[in-house]
Backbone:
């Protein structure tokens, strides 16, 4: 069995940290001649509002989806990641990232981690959720205030 990565998945939150996470993943994908995909997860609106709103949220969800696709393209296009390898999915981030990874043969997930301290913050972080259910390697890239180092 080869120890090279064949499919690298970069999970981003569409903030400025996304660029740093992607820039850490690109050389790994290149070195391994691996496919590179990028994914952003939108939480379904029904979750945020407990499903109690007496209106159809479909058009709002579609607008959020379109906006997320546009932002993802702004991050991915300059690095020549084809549109068909840019994914916006709706659901809980760790669940969707695990599902995508299994379905697409991902063997490395790259995700941003804020490296915050304290058990409550740790439990709430997407990178922790991704790490705990992953069936492949996970690289957590330190981003945000605590890890502010401009190398």
Residues:
């Amino acid at each position: 069995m080869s120890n090279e990565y064949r499919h690298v998945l970069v999970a981003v939150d569409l903030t400025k940290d996304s660029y740093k996470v992607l820039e850490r993943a690109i050389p790994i994908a290149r070195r391994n001649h691996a496919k590179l995909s990028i994914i952003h997860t939108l939480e379904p609106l029904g979750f945020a509002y407990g499903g109690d709103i007496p209106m159809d949220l479909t058009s709002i969800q579609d607008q959020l989806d379109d906006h997320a696709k546009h932002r993802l393209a702004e991050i991915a296009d300059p690095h020549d990641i084809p549109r068909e390898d840019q994914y916006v999915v709706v659901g809980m981030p760790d669940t969707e990232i695990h599902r995508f990874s299994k379905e697409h043969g991902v063997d490395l997930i790259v995700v941003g981690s804020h490296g915050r301290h304290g058990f409550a913050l740790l439990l709430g972080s997407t990178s922790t959720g991704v790490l705990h259910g992953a069936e492949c390697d996970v690289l957590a890239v330190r981003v945000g205030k605590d890890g502010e180092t401009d190398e």
